[in-house]
Amino acid sequence: MAIENSGGIQVQGMQFSYDGLQPPLFLDFNLHVSPGSRCLLVGANGSGKTTLLKILAGKHMVGGRDVVRVLNSSAFHDTQLVCSGDLAYLGGSWSKNIGCAGDIPLQGDFSAEHMIFGVEGVDPNRRDNLIDLLDIDLQWRMHKVSDGQRRRVQICLGLLHPYKVLLLDEVTVDLDVVTRMDLLEFFKEECEQREATIVYATHIFDGLETWATHLAYIQEGELRRAEKISDVNELKSSTNLLSVVESWLRAETKLEKKKPVNNTSQANPFASSPFFSSRHMAYYR
Ligand SMILES: Nc1ncnc2c1ncn2[C@@H]1O[C@H](COP(=O)(O)OP(=O)(O)OP(=O)(O)O)[C@@H](O)[C@H]1O
Predict the structure, then answer these.
(1) Is 182 helix (H, G, I), strand (E, B) or coil?
(2) What is the CATH number of the domain that holds 111?
(3) Which residues of the chain have pLDDT under 70?
(4) ipTM of the complex
(5) Centroid of ligand 1 to alpha carbon of 186 (angstroms)
(6) Would you state the pLDDT for residue 281?
(7) Is 2 domain-assigned?
(8) What pLDDT does 285 receive?
(9) How far is the CA of 192 from the centre of ligand 1 (A)?
(10) What does the buried/exposed string (b/e) look like for 238-252 if buried means 16 or more CB atoms within 10 Å of the residue's CB?
(11) Ligand 1: which of 42, 51, 245 to mutate, judged by most atoms within 8 Å of the beta carbon?
């Protein structure tokens, strides 16, 4: 992806480990997402998608101010990014982080209306559009709704402020197909009309071939592919995105099975860890 200086996302030489007890998940990781892109983040379970999105959302500190930059600010250090609503993150847990208010639970005995109208500084037209788009009944009691209905309220809360960068960690999983497609269309319009940037980690590829502008593929914390969707060679033949990603992940599994047992157990403390791979060898030399 082209390097942009005017916003979007730039990750340069990032290293990240959850704690000193594991080898780094990310080693010298680089990623550039241009403003206005809709970037799909794909990879096997445990490859690092959620971790990357959380880092981009400023939830983990990595290196100095220049390592992870979102909208020309440091994702972790510049708290204004999140507080202003410019940077929004929607993840899998049943809570919603609204600006600087912290995590708000979505399962108590209160109404959807109470949740949605409790968010201050919102454009009423945008709010009405979202309530309509997500087909939310304001009388829903949040402790009695279905998973899909709760998810809709979570998404609505996350989108009330007109974000500039939106990080989505598979939040459409509980949605019915109509709501999912309408939401994807809404996101597309937001990118095209306002140059919003979206990074979307998902395992559900229905309808995404024409939705996404870019594709980033992560394997064990390494960025294996990052390109325009129109440049993905495999998609130029008749195959769909699901088959392409499936073939990448199957190739990964085959390689994993062929990997020689490494003999560095004396050299570093992580050699027996399931997360230790050949790319870590140089790191411990
Ligand atoms: N809080 C944590 N502490 C330690 N290790 C973690 C933590 N969260 C995730 N990991 C590890 O980091 C690696 C990447 O996890 P991550 O959740 O980012 O993967 P993912 O690509 O989002 O997976 P999935 O597709 O299953 O959601 C995994 O090996 C996981 O076990």
Answers:
(1) helix
(2) 3.40.50.300
(3) 1-6, 20-21, 93-107, 238, 257-285
(4) 0.98
(5) 29
(6) 52
(7) no
(8) 43
(9) 32
(10) eeebeebbeebbeeb
(11) 51
